[in-house]
Design a protein that fits this description.
Blueprint: H1 3-7, E1 11-14, H2 20-31, E2 35-40, E3 52-55, H3 61-70, E4 76-79, H4 94-126, E5 130-135, H5 148-168, E6 173-179, H6 199-211, E7 216-218, H7 221-229
Helix pairs in contact: 2-6, 3-4, 4-5
The structure holds NADP nicotinamide-adenine-dinucleotide phosphate (NAP).
NADP nicotinamide-adenine-dinucleotide phosphate is lined by residues 15-16, 18-22, 41-42, 56-59, 80-83, 103, 107, 135, 137, 180, 182-183, 185-188.
C-alpha cells in the first residue's frame, strides 16, 4: 500500500497547526487526500486551503474535550503543539519549567487520552488502523543545561510514547515518535539558517514513517548520531 492509498481514507487532527511544523503536517496530509482538522489556540489564524480549523488548547481540559467531540471522525492524531522557553532547570522561572511539562507531556497526554476512544470507535465502525504521531526532538536524548526544561519535557514525552505504544498496539492504533533537530520555524528563529532543516521535508518524512509503521522517525543526521550514541 502506498502512503497516498493509506491517507486518502484518513481523518487527521494536527495540534498547533496554524504555523511552523504543524502547518506543514496539515498541508502534507491535505495533499495526500486526508480530511484534516487543523487544531489551533486561535483557529482564526489557520490559513491552509482544504482544512477544517478547530479550537484546541492542549493544556485546557475543556478545550480538549470539546475538540474530541467536534472532530469525532478522527483516525490519526499528530501531537505537534509545543513551546520552547529555554528555561534552565536551576535558575529558570518555575512557571516556564511547568509550562514545558504541561504542554509537551500533560497536554500531549490529554489529547491522546481524549482521542483514543474516538479513533477506536472509528476503526471499529469503518475498519482500518489508527495512528498517533508524537513530535519529540533530538533533545529527548540530548539534555543540555541551557534547555533543561524543554529536554526534560521531551524526554518525558519519549517515555510516554513508548508506554502508550505498548498499550495501543493490540487495540489497532500505531504510536510513533518523530525526533528531529533544528527546523526552520519561529521556535528557533535565532539559529542560523544553514543549521536548520525545512519543516515541509520533515513533515513528509514523518508521515511516510508513520504510515510505514515505524516506531521512531529520525529527522536528520544529528538525531541519528545522537540516537546511535545512546548505546555507547
Ligand atoms: N523548530 C525546531 O527546531 C524543533 C526541533 C525539534 C522539535 N520541535 C518540535 O516541533 C513541534 C512544532 O514546533 P515548531 O517548531 O513548529 O514551533 P512553532 O513555530 O513555535 O509552533 C508551535 C505551535 O504550537 C502551538 N502551541 C503551543 N502551545 C499550545 C497549546 N497549549 N495548545 C495548542 N497549541 C499550542 C503554537 O500555537 P500558537 O500560534 O497559538 O502559539 C504553534 O502553532 C513542537 O513540539 C516542537 O517542540 C521543534
Amino acid at each position: 500500500m502506498t502512503n497516498n492509498e493509506h491517507t486518502e481514507h484518513t481523518v487527521a487532527l494536527v495540534t498547533g497547526a496554524n504555523r511552523g511544523l504543524g502547518k506543514r503536517f496539515a498541508e502534507e496530509l491535505v495533499a495526500r487526500g486526508a480530511k484534516v482538522y487543523a487544531g489551533a489556540r486561535r483557529p482564526e489564524t489557520v490559513d491552509i486551503a482544504g482544512v477544517i480549523p478547530i479550537a484546541l488548547d492542549i493544556t485546557d481540559p475543556e478545550s480538549v474535550r470539546r475538540a474530541a467531540e467536534e472532530a469525532g471522525d478522527v483516525t490519526v492524531v499528530v501531537n505537534n503543539a509545543g513551546v520552547s522557553t529555554q528555561a534552565n532547570l536551576l535558575d529558570g522561572p518555575i512557571e516556564d519549567i511547568r509550562l514545558e511539562m504541561e504542554t509537551h507531556y500533560f497536554g500531549t497526554l490529554a489529547v491522546t487520552r481524549a482521542f483514543v476512544p474516538v479513533i477506536e470507535r472509528n476503526i471499529a465502525e469503518n475498519g482500518g488502523t489508527g495512528a498517533i504521531l508524537n513530535v519529540l526532538s533530538v533533545l529527548s536524548w540530548l539534555h543540555p543545561g541551557t534547555s533543561g526544561a524543554y529536554s526534560a519535557a521531551k524526554a518525558a514525552g519519549w517515555a510516554m510514547t513508548d508506554a502508550v505504544r505498548e498499550d495501543l498496539a493490540p487495540r489497532g492504533i500505531h504510536v510513533a515518535a518523530l525526533h528531529v533537530g533544528y527546523m526552520d520555524t519561529d521556535m528557533v528563529i535565532y539559529i542560523p539558517a544553514d543549521q536548520k532543516t525545512d519543516p515541509a521535508l520533515i513533515a513528509k518524512l514523518a508521515l511516510d514513517g508513520l504510515f510505514a509503521g515505524q516506531n521512531e522517525i529520525l529527522g536528520d543526521a544529528l538525531t541519528r548520531t545522537v540516537k546511535a550514541s545512546l548505546s555507547g
